[in-house]
Amino acid sequence: MRRLIAGMKISIDGMMEGPEGTADWVDAWSEDYGLTQEIDACLLGAGMYPGYERYWTAIRDEPDRPVWITGNPPSAAEIEWSKFAEKTPHYVLSSTLTTANWPQTRFLQTVDDVAALKRQNGKAIYLMGGAQLTASLIDAGLVDEIRLLVYPLVAGHGRALFAGMGRRHRFEPQKAETLPDGRLSLIYATRPQAAAPAFAA
User: Fold this and answer.
1) Closest Cα to residue 108, out of 47, 166, 46, 40?
2) What is the C-alpha to C-alpha distance for residues 6 and 125, in angstroms, rounded to an integer?
3) CATH of span 4-10+18-120+129-174
4) Contact, 105 vs 88, CB < 8 A?
5) Is the distance from CB of 15 to CB of 151 less than 8 angstroms?
6) Residue 45 forms beta bridges with which residues?
7) More exposed terminus of the chain, fewer Cβ within 10 Å: N or C?
8) Which 3 state secondary structure label does DSSP give 129?
9) For 11-55, how does the pLDDT look when each residue is reduced to its tens digit (9 = 90+)?
10) Distance (Å, rounded) from C-alpha 147 to C-alpha 34?
11) What is the per-residue DSSP string for 61-112?
């Protein structure tokens, strides 16, 4: 069984995006979770995929130009990820989106399709988002690990990573590390939440 590992960049108050619909506190969208050597596929939702494809295609084709989300030239790590992403299979969970410019992109229609993908041979799969997809796959018991990069700010409003969770979940802490720029790197293994004990009458 392949592992499905979610990697997310969030604010202290758990926001993936601020009120303007962007995470403007993130300087670069490279894979900064230490996943690249562990994975051979990526999974994301239909709402995220078109912008993702556009962003990394622009970096691949014009690595010296500022990119449209951050307005900054791509970092060395972003340029490396654009090369990795170009040759890596991407799977998009969608009931409506059926076409992509990247030839390595395939489409899944149901959560059962994700479960079937996990049963195939291969390395781990990087779950990139978005928030609703991540929540639904955690609820379905398909996510094995969560890696978070927590930025030292409170967004206040926006889109919370776990806002769409259907039930309570408990995670097993695996590693916590303070990074030089004030961020926290947190790694959790997922496990089913045990039922609450019944109280005697």
Assistant:
1) 46
2) 8
3) 3.40.430.10
4) no
5) no
6) 93
7) C
8) strand
9) 999 999 988 888 888 988 999 999 999 999 999 999 999 999 999
10) 9
11) H-TTSPPTTTSSPPPHHHHHHHHHHHHS-EEEE-SS----SSTTEEEE-SHH
pLDDT in tens, 143-178: 999 999 999 999 998 989 888 787 888 899 999 999
The Cα angle at residue 73 between residues 70 and 78, in degrees rounded to 5: 85
Residue type, 83: K
- pTM of the predicted structure, to 2 decimals: 0.90
What are 92's two structure tokens? 């998009």
Please name the residue ranges forming H helices in the chain.
49-61, 76-87, 111-119, 131-139
The DSSP call for residue 165 is -
Contact 10, 151 (CB under 8 A): yes
Cα-based torsion angle of the residue sequence 193, 197, 198, 199 in order, rounded to the nearest 10 degrees: -140
Six-digit token string for 53: 């494809």
Structure token pair of residue 38:
């562990």
Both tokens assigned to 44: 């994301």
Which residue type is seen at 37? Q
Amino acid letter for position 161: L
What does the pLDDT look like over 98-142, one tens digit per residue? Answer: 899 999 999 999 999 999 999 999 999 999 988 899 999 999 999
Which residue, 175, 173, 174, 171, is CA-closest to 192? Answer: 171
CA 151/CA 45 separation, integer angstroms: 23
